[in-house]
Amino acid sequence: MYGAAHRQLFRALRTVSKNCANTLRKHQELIFVMIKFPWVDVLAKTLCIIYYSQSGTTERMAYKIKEGAEKTGLRVTLKKVEQSSVTDLLEAYATAVGSPTYFSNVTWQVKKLVDESIVLYRKAHSLENKVCGCFVSAGTRNDGKDCLRMLEIAFGVHHKMKMVPGIVLESKEAEQEGLQVCYQFGVKLAEQLVPH
Questions:
Q1: Cα dihedral angle (106, 147, 124, 45), rounded to 10 degrees?
Q2: Over the stretch 111-140, which tens digit does the pLDDT of each residue have?
Q3: What is d(CA 92, CA 159) in angstroms, rounded to the nearest whole number?
Q4: How many CA atoms lie within 13 A of 182 on its CB side?
Q5: How far apart are CA 10 and CA 78, in angstroms?
Q6: What is the DSSP letter of 171?
Q7: CA dihedral 144, 63, 96, 58 (to 10 degrees)
Q8: Could you tell me the pTM of the whole model?
Q9: H-type alpha helices, the chain
Q10: Which of 81, 137, 141, 180 could crosslink 52 through cysteines, CB 3.0-4.6 Å?
Q11: d(Cα 65, Cα 187) in Å, to the nearest integer?
């Protein structure tokens, strides 16, 4: 009924099945983790938080954002803008950029990074569809909103990144209750990378 070709095919399938079973047994722990926790691949994704801080308020915001994002299991790197480059923007799955507000604008250190990112814009919108969120500290909410708008135009409009609505923290709000907004912002950024 069956010819030699069929017997050879059945033997090959049996060998493949045996090899698959051995592979499954060998990796059953990892497979269980991936089935139980489908977001396990998020461990490979990184949120890069880049900030400048003169008085320490923006730095406290950055650390609280990091804490919120890490709660979801996301890997987070924190960098002062002086130690970062456009490569950090390119390599991260998501980016958060923070600055104090000076005369309704970002600091020159953050502006320098934004200006240098033009090379990524020219390279076929290298940042397009990556997640980005911006955060600023300010003396007044209106100045902070203007500053935030500048960052969101650069990253959202020009770089075509997926923007998470940014946050403004007035200096007088920089206590524990105010920093809770930063924690929630970190969670929101991470949720963009972690499947629900």
A1: 90
A2: 999 999 998 888 777 888 899 999 999 988
A3: 14
A4: 28
A5: 55
A6: G
A7: 30
A8: 0.75
A9: 4-26, 28-36, 57-70, 86-91, 108-116, 118-122, 141-152, 176-191
A10: 81
A11: 8
